[in-house]
Amino acid sequence: MIRSSLRRGLLAATSVTAIAFAGVLFAQPALADVTNGGFETGTLSGWTSAGTTAAVNSGAHSGTYAARVGGTSPTNGNSSIAQTFTAPGGSPSLSFWYDVFCPDTVTYDWATVTLKDNTSGTTTTPLAKTCTSGQGWKQKTSALTTGHSYTLTLISKDDNYAGDPTYTLYDDVVVSGTVANDFSISDSPASTTVNAGASAMSTISTAVVSGTAETVNLAASGLPSGASATFSPASVTAGSSSTLTVTTATSTPSGTYPITVTGTSPSATHSATFTLTVNGSGPTLTQVSTDPFTNTSSQHATELEPDTFAYGNTIVASSQVGRFTDGGSSDIGWNTSTDGGATWQHGMLPGITVYQGGGSWARVSDPAVAYDARHGTWMVSGLVIDANANGAGVTVSRSSDGLSWQNPVLAVGNDGQGYDKEWIVCDNTATSPHYGNCYVEVDITSSGNAVVMSTSSDGGATWSAPVAPSGGPSGLGGQPLVQPNGTVVVPYSTNGSSIRAFNSANGGTSWSSTSLVANVTSHGVAGGLRDGEGLPSAEIDASGKIYIAWQDCRFRSGCPANDIVYSTSTNGTSWSAVTRVPIDATSSTADHFIPGIGIDHGTSGTTARIGLYYYFYPQANCTASTCQLEVGFLSSTDGGTTWSVPQTVAGPMSLSQIASTTQGSMVGDYISTSVVNGKSVAVFAVGKTPVNGQAFDEALYTAGGLSLRGGTVQAEQAPAHSAPAPSTPPARLPLRTAH
Predict the structure, then answer these.
(1) Strand (E) positions, 586-715?
(2) Do the beta carbons of residue 648 and residue 615 sit within 8 Å?
(3) In terms of Cα–Cα distance, which of 545, 579, 575, 539 is closest to 714?
(4) pLDDT per residue over 629-645, tens digit each?
(5) 28 pLDDT exceeds 50?
(6) To the nearest whole number, what is the mean pLDDT of the chain?
(7) In this structure, is the dihedral angle defined by the CA atoms of residues 685, 688, 691 and 695, taken in order, positive or negative?
(8) How confident is the model at residue 214 (pLDDT cuts 50, 70, 90)?
(9) Burial track 424-447 (b if 16+ CB lie within 10 A, e otherwise)
């Protein structure tokens, strides 16, 4: 017999009208959990197919596409598409359209539709077996039960008889009903630790669960005594986020407090828990030293820009003391602990400036500490400054015990050139071919910030003539590190635009060309604070793996604030992708800067124990009169893969409480962290309200040894460099000096 070959195929899918419903208020019919019901994607995405199926662009019930189940040539057995969905509220129902092309009889070929209620385990047949041809589009509907899960299967059966292929078009599958508006709420971080009197922040995120986005009003309850909570903003549209700031009082009792953050919309209420631990007085802050000077040419009492180095149980810290507004200080102070940071002794280095021990220089700046194990000598380097506020060279003060200090030796300079930002390190690996060598890095400002190195092999008594790395790089703030095999790696800032590094494998006789660690993208810190402009903080683990940390905004859209980030290398030439330390969410309002990274030198690799101190503003968008400066700390016990919850160890302090300079208020261009007996020790500048007629009360404090704890907060890595690092340094930027 002759059979019609007219083909049209469509599966019951979401109509254009139904799609439009998805954007209206929740009281209206809305698409609920049926994906691609109108097949307007031009595919069967969202459906599970079996047999012969396709999305076709002819004969659709509405729109452009329909689903054809079965083929235009004979097929054997059932073809089908299926999808599982959940019924919404408000008398929900299912509807679909179908058009059958069946030139045979229902005995052999047919179209049928089944609807299985997965919740109750029952199955109905909205479309019984039918075999018609030329009848056009027809619609079927079925009632649903709110909240039940259903599997809809659209079927076409063909007996594979030559000359009468059977197929069915389905289109405009719609589930209608009343879709309730709902949202979820979460916080990140979900917990944090602060000192009494400090603030904690968490990003409160909301998301649309069903229906349309409504306004969510935020509130906090369960606050400890004396604490207050604010949300910025106080209400959000579901899908947006807010920053929760909990401010404690100095009288807030120590303890752990589960704070309930509640979001309320016209349709729903949900909550999340933010766990706040208050340290009472926090880690006990010990004042390490104070400014003893009274000369009227510099600011008192001010101590700032500390560096530390530890060997055995001894820690030596140094800092600027009596800061001048236009560069340098009255002297460099030394602060030494011989019991792992429990107690401290302090004094001033003699023979450098005219203010202490008969020195001849007008000022000194940029202190850095090293220890030479081979020669049993502690060293503090400094940038000596002449009466015209020009950096004149590098001195090295030496001591056998960190307590009694000799007058300095001149390592580099006093030759009419300008210098800035020196650093010092020694090779302390007994098996190294260059054991006992010490290295100074400095830049020559009068030669375009040209970077040079000098070497000593006699405990810092004498120093070699400066040697420039291959290619003559320009930059500042280099921090040399020595690997166990004696290779010296020197990361430095290319005047703020990037971090690069060079190395020497022959004990400082010659130095390589530079390699790119990473370009730097940073947010300008508010309030006119002098923030080091991305100078690197560098450390090394027991295996020789190098960690370089700096402030960077690349992880935050629009660069509204900085995170602390780092890159690592095992050879000093190939560097990892930049990794973000997860102090808080990238949507937080906090700004983080001036990092000081420290590593337990007895650990390495995936068990390397890291401590990180840093300064931060809880609110990045502040002014010189409103910015609140604090000191934070967190740690990792797995080489930086995961991190502990951060804690605030000092602050808040106002910018008016710290030294004023021509480049901004100042706690230092850098800080430092040392690890002793498994604990992280740092010395940092803290400003307080001055008394006794002093202009300032900015002194050095320590929180003692903070335990290096692991955590569960995952670090975030940026994509790896898409191209090899250039073999030559970038073009020089406008020069800066920072002494």
Answers:
(1) 591-599, 610-617, 628-636, 642-643, 647-654, 665-666, 674-676, 679-681, 683-688, 697-702, 706-707, 713-714
(2) no
(3) 579
(4) 999 999 999 999 999 98
(5) no
(6) 90
(7) positive
(8) very high
(9) bbbbbbeebebbbbbbbbbbbbbb
